[in-house]
Write a structure and sequence with these properties.
The chain is of the alpha/beta class and 347 residues long. The protein is built from eleven helices and 17 strands.
């Protein structure tokens, strides 16, 4: 039997979000029913609710940074029990059969993973995200939140945390490596924290020095303003890895000049507009221009355990559900330090 729950949804593209009700499916054999406690607001939510990345499904309940407590489990569930602290990230299913799924890379499922919202599940029903009271998710796409991380600070880790952790791990950020993080926002501040905890020498590249004090407190060793042309001269050939977390188009040729030979510039921010590139910027120096999505379920659990071990959580501003629309505008104005998190008890 399905359950009716309260939620906040965008009724149409670019429309303000409003309180409504949605139906959650009956708890199946391998499902967990999660009482959502906190849901982070990701810039991706805004891109999708406003159709910045293309046609979307409405009404839309955004939210793929979900932290809560297990309220019920299906008869076949073995990973979780009622009362467990759990999280759900950007996907709730995949084909589970392709090469990538079998390798624990469900985020790159050849048939396409099923997004936590703005997607169709295997039954052709739209998925609804974390701006809601409860959610039903297969245990295979649910992760455990360790006791060492507060639930509200853990919610953004399900996207901002894993989106930065995965490329840092893949490109071997660690002792002896120089890593630059472009942008100190929701993604960037976690990139700085994680790169520092991994042992890398960390530099923040931001438009201005406005957040310099914050960046150094979060673990950055250096902080430069990209609005100053001297920055690109001074740092030419400096970095093994540059992680771009911004959603605005950048002058890629300028940033690629900051890489060492064999360095990598990795995009995790996704601008809505195409960007230009002179290929000589990668040919000279055998440099890599790459992108990275989230991580698989196994790596997401690894990230959460790493954060608990190192005492890491997101820097958050807790808001009520009726502040979501205001929060969206503040995200677009870069007026948040560093992640809005909805207290879902206020829905």
């Amino acid at each position: 039997m399905s359950t009716t729950v309260a939620a906040y949804a965008a009724p149409s593209a670019k429309a303000p979000l409003e309180r409504t009700t949605i139906e959650r499916r009956e708890v199946g054999e391998f499902d967990v029913l999660i009482d959502i406690k906190f849901a982070g607001i990701c810039h991706s939510d805004i891109h999708q609710a406003r159709e910045g990345w293309g046609e979307a499904i409405f009404p839309m309940v955004p939210g793929h940074e979900i932290a809560g407590v297990v309220e019920a489990v299906g008869s076949g569930v073995t990973k979780f029990a009622v009362g467990d602290r759990v999280g759900v990230g950007c996907m709730v299913d995949s084909c589970r059969e392709c090469e990538n799924c079998e390798a624990g890379l469900e985020q790159y499922c050849h048939k396409g993973n099923v997004g936590t919202y703005n997607a169709l599940d295997k039954n052709g029903e739209p998925t609804y995200g974390g701006y809601s009271e409860k959610i039903v998710v297969d245990e295979a796409f649910t992760v455990r939140i360790p006791e060492g991380v507060a639930l509200d600070e853990a919610a953004p880790l399900l996207c901002a945390g894993i989106t930065t952790y995965s490329p840092l791990r893949h490109w071997n950020a660690g002792p002896g490596k120089k890593v630059a993080v472009v942008g100190l926002g929701g993604l960037g501040h976690m990139g700085v924290k994680l790169a520092h905890a991994l042992g890398a020498e960390v530099t923040v590249l931001s438009q201005s020095l406005r957040k310099q004090e914050d960046g150094l407190k979060l673990g950055a060793d250096h902080y430069y303003a990209t609005s100053d042309p001297a920055t690109f001269e001074e740092l030419r050939g400096s970095f093994d890895l540059i992680l771009s977390t911004v959603s605005a188009p950048l002058n890629l040729d300028a940033y690629l000049s900051l890489l060492k030979t064999d360095g990598a510039f990795v995009n995790v921010g996704a601008p809505e507009e195409p960007v230009a590139l002179n290929l000589f910027s990668v040919i000279a120096g055998r440099k890599t221009l790459a992108g990275s999505g989230i991580g698989g379920i196994r790596e997401t659990q690894e990230m959460l355990d790493f954060c608990a071990e190192h005492g890491l959580g997101a820097e958050i501003e807790l808001i009520r559900a009726d502040q979501i629309n205001e929060a969206y505008e503040r995200v677009l104005a870069s007026d948040v330090r560093y992640r809005f998190v909805i207290d879902t008890a206020t829905i």
